[in-house]
Each structure stands twice: as C-alpha cells, then as structure tokens.
Design brief:
Elements: H1 4-17, H2 25-33, H3 38-42, E1 68-72, H4 78-87, E2 92-97, H5 100-113, E3 118-122, E4 135-141, H6 150-160, E5 161-174, H7 180-183, H8 186-190, H9 199-208, E6 212-218, H10 238-243, H11 250-261, H12 264-267, E7 268-276
Parallel strand pairs: 1-2, 1-4, 2-3, 4-5
Antiparallel strand pairs: 5-7, 6-7
Amino acid sequence: MPDITEAVKSKYGAVAASGLSSDHDGVRAVAEAFGYSAAELAAIPAEANMGLSCGNPTATANLRPGEVVVDLGSGGGLDVFLAAEKVGPAGRAIGIDMTPEMIDRARAAAARLGTGNVEFHLSTIDRLPLADGSADCVISNCVINLAPDKAAVFREMYRVLKPGGRVAISDIALKKALPAEVGQDLLAYIGCVAGAVLISDYVAALEAAGFGAVAVVDTGKDLNAYSQVEGQSGCCAPAEVQSGCCSPSEVHVGLASLLTRFDVNEFAASVQVYAVKAF
C-alpha cells in the first residue's frame, strides 16, 4: 500500500476542492444521519460540511463557555464552528488539519463569518502545535482511524489536555476483523474503514496513553448513509452537473463501492469515544 499519509492528504485535498456542501441533499443527509440537527447545519457555513462525518462530537462533549476545545482533523470547520458557539467569545475553538486545501476552506469560511474565537492550524494530529496542558477538551470526527500511528495521536491528546480534561470523539472502529480484501484496499482505508482498529484495541491504546474512564460506545448508526453522497447530480442544475460541481469525491466513490460489496455494519461501527485525563 502506498504512503498512507500522502494518499489521505491527496484524496481529502480533492474533497476540499470540490463543490460538496450542505447545499447538496446527499451531503446534508449524511450529516443528519450521524447526529447533526437541521438547525445546527443551518447555523454554520454550508461548505464546512462535506459529508465526511461519522457522528457529532459537539453533541456529547458538554462544552462550556470559556473553554478551549481542539478538533483533530477539522476539515472544513464543521465541528469547530459549532464548538465556537458553545464556548462563546471567552473560549477558543482550534482546528488542526494536515490538508492545506481544508485549512484554506475553513479559514475562508471563518473570515466571512467574522468569527473571532476560532483558529485553524496546518499540522498532522500526531504532532500538535499546541502547548502542554492548554486544552479543556479534545474532539475529532472520523479522523483518528486515518492516522497510521494512533498511539502517537493519543499521547498528543493527553499532552495538550489540562488535568481533568476530556475527550469526546466520533470515529469508526471494528467489531471484528476485516475481510482481507477490505483491509488491503487503499480506498477502504481512505474511506475510514481499513485503518480502523478493534474497539477493544481502541480502549487499550487510550489507557496506555494515560487516560482513565475510557469508553468506546457503538452508536448503532447505519454506515450505509455514506452512499447518499454518490450521484450528487440531483443537487445541481443540469449545466452545473456537466461542469462537475457536484461530482462525488473519490473518497465517497470508494466508500460507495465498498458498501455495495460488503455489509460494512457487520464488522465496523460508528462509535463515540470518551476518556478523561486525571487531575
């Protein structure tokens, strides 16, 4: 398999450059299937949502005014913008993403909104450009499964959290071992499945990083929701379809192909991950 980090960066950069947004029915349907309300999606820039979520971590993070929250793999800023509203002007919402196109897209949206309590940093999530003990909460949405060195990611999460800080993550984890064909498929990896680990291994890795009160909970969400992004021609006028403005990304195409060949829900799950850094 080619270099995973570069492959992920390339494919998600292409998603950022696409016209996919909450203005498209399929993209909006994916977000709603994984826990976002219509009101939440209407309150943020449409381009912040590209149909890449597997949950809504801001719904379970219990964010409070004045807190500092860090979003690992922030993409177009979907969860950063929602978190910024919850922590208020006295707090900060910080997005981390390794894809320049995603960072540009998120910063442009923030500038248009005039949001003063958000910031976005170009970085991998296993080497965060943040000080020790600087965050109250770490969130992430369907990204840690893409990281080749998950142990390093968990160590960085632990490092940047304040004592008593917490983790609230949405991710894909495995209920049982993948079929060999899926485990060796690059698009399945980029599509958040082949890089996922068993739920028990997820718990063990967080505990090894120092976290306590670790829980990885299967939400029971239907992963077939991703197929709704395929064939986005219905979201555009005919002339726009011909220009490719709503063409699904290779990430979504790969996921759609996977979903036609396997019952992904049999071996993978959308999970909510919780953990606490002890005082």
